[in-house]
Amino acid sequence: MHALSYIISPVTRKQAKQGGEIPSPRRDSDFAPQNKEVITGTVIYADVLFGINFVANLCALLITDWIFKFSARISRMIISATLGAAWAVICVCIPLRFALLEKFITYGPVTLIMSMIMLSGNKNFKLKTSKQLKLYMRNLLKAGAGMILTALFAGGIMHWLKYTFAGYFIENVILSDSELVIFLTVTVIVVVIVLKTLRTIRITDGLKRRIVIGVAEREFEMDAIIDTGNSLIDYVGRRPVTVVERTYFSDILSDIDNLQKLGYHLIPYNSVGNSGGMMEIITADYIHIYEGENVVTKKHAAIGMSLRQINKNGDYHALLGKDMAG
Which residue of 70, 107, 260, 279 is surrounded by the most CB atoms within 10 Å? Predict the structure, then answer.
């Protein structure tokens, strides 16, 4: 998507004689009246155009992700913004008579592909059932519409800025220096990645706990995080469920003769993008939850076993319900 490429004035203008020749150094005879017509040609540097559109696309993707809470990966958004910027450079080579087709492709297939890239890799958008497919299509349309509306809004702001001192400064100072554009592009990428990383660290550090689970005379120690969205309740005893990666208990489940000794049973559960699933439940003898020097102990706690890795970076391996921390 190249939302701002048609709003920002050309980067550099040079004069060239008709026929595309580059003028040679002037001589005195050149100032004599001549019949040759001189026209103004526009030179647009590909790297500058790419950098401008990359930043514009990345900003549109970040705003769309923030509005709709997609929790998209920054790496996917960078890939998506790169695709959009590359398409903007290609569009410069398309003859003007195909301008309508160019706009259709930009705000149709290209926008949808960028949205698909942004949403890909998110576990909430894995396609397994028809219901999940409908959810994915709905979010895909949301993402595409969000990007277009954000681009149009940004375009209006840039059009307004064009007639202000800020617009003059952007056009004649920033955009006239390709190295400055590249530097600003890299800076924006680094700042976005750092801020998103710091935000994640700040949130998880405040909610992270060290826990010890006792099951069948064995103890398992791991990092957990308080998941305020975990409202899963075991129908046996109406107990809150702590979700743990199943790999921790594989040996116990294979060694024990009677799973009923662990209180083994299944409960239905729903999560974002995954409905109608069944989760294995066992009963722990206890869970010790550590927060600094404070320890909270929960007896006969319900443990839900997740078949998937809970955190892709391995920062924590269990999800505590909000009622488990108190």
Answer: 70
